[in-house]
Amino acid sequence: MRYCNKKTGSVKITGSERAVMSCVIERYPELSSCHEDNEKKRCPECLSLHCKKKGFLYKNLRTLRGSVKHKLQRYYCHSCGISFTSQGYQKRSPHSKTQEQKAVLDYVSTTSTLREVSYRFNVSHQTILNWMMKHREIGLGDGHSLPKTWSGYISFDGKETTVKGKKRTLLFALDSYSGYPFEYQVSLRENTEATQNLLDKVKTSYPVAIEGITTDFGRGKCFVKPIEEAFPGVPHQICLVHYLRYVNLFVPRTKRSAFYWRNAVLKGLIRRTVYAGNNTESNYWLAQFLHFAPFFRASYHKRYLNSLKKNHALLTAYYQDEDLPKTTNVSENFNRQLERKLKTMDGFKSDESIVAFINIWVTCYRMKKLNINRNLWAKYLWKS
């Protein structure tokens, strides 16, 4: 018994009838195609006439004179849902799940561009992105999810990217000694609210007691107050490299400046204060700095004088604990490797795509830190 679709008017054909029709088409090929443009096209799969035009298919034909671009009319069958051209119908070869995962890892964990990866796997760039969204739910299994030891010292940092031209901020939390990223947050901007959300995750995900934290000031000092409220009594060290970089950036270095020698003395006193051998020596150099305050007359002199006086405890917190890192070199290395990949990308199309990418990229970075063979990544990343 045949079944008719009332909307499309097409008839559902059984397997035996299709076999008979295929034999008929082989003997009378004129039935599978039309000779006139105004006639309806017959589907080569189900032989239905309920087909409509659906764009064009472009093929590059190699000739003796070079490559020629050939344009073919494309059709869509409403009965069986396939697309075909006037030259026939060719099924796409399905890609295995392993091949999809391998393509995603090749795109995310290397500096290859999307076009290069799509060329290697002979698929479109949109297919690679679709596979990334399909396999975004990953996790390390078989006892490889966490490092064997935790230092108790963590480091925070941020990285900016774009979604359709609009800025997004990626905040990360890493173990200061192993460099293992254990938590991250995607937010609209780097502010106090985003930091608080990340700290809430850190409280539940970090397996041992936190003994010290190292960060830079953050945009608008967004790291200082939330960390003080979330972890009272825990030493918080401001990265000295970042602080001295800001000093060198805003204090003129040219000899043409009227305050050239004063600028040199200012930088020397700041360096001696933050890199002193102990807390007593640091307080001594801070007192010397305040004593010679009338000597520094420029507006930026007063700015850094007040900054050093106000943030002296944050800049010298490592005196309380010798194991507390003075810099955020671990998180800067993490950011540098992420930047190499982001340079090959022109931002993201949606917030979902950036979450999928960061989820896979961070997990691949963890695999490197755990010294797992790259050939075994797919086995541990996607749980079967």
Quaternary structure state of the chains depicted: single chain
Using the coordinates above, name the CATH class of the largest domain: Alpha Beta
CATH level-3 fold name of the largest domain: Nucleotidyltransferase, domain 5
Query: Outline, from the CA principal axes?
Result: elongated
Output the keywords.
384 residues; alpha+beta; Nucleotidyltransferase, domain 5; 3 domains; 14 helices; elongated
Provide structural commentary.
This protein has about 375 residues and is of the alpha+beta class. It has three domains: about 5-85, no CATH class; about 135-235 and about 330-384, Nucleotidyltransferase, domain 5; about 235-320. The chain contains 14 helices and ten strands. The strands form three sheets. A five-stranded mixed β-sheet has the order 8-7-6-9-10, sandwiched between helices. It has a three-stranded antiparallel β-sheet with strand order 3-4-5, with no helix packed on it. Helix 2 (about 95-110) crosses helix 4 (about 125-135) and helix 7 (about 240-250) packs antiparallel against helix 8 (about 260-275). The chain is elongated, with a radius of gyration of 32 Å. The two termini are about 40 Å apart. The model is unreliable at about 5-10, about 35-40 and about 140-145 (pLDDT under 50).
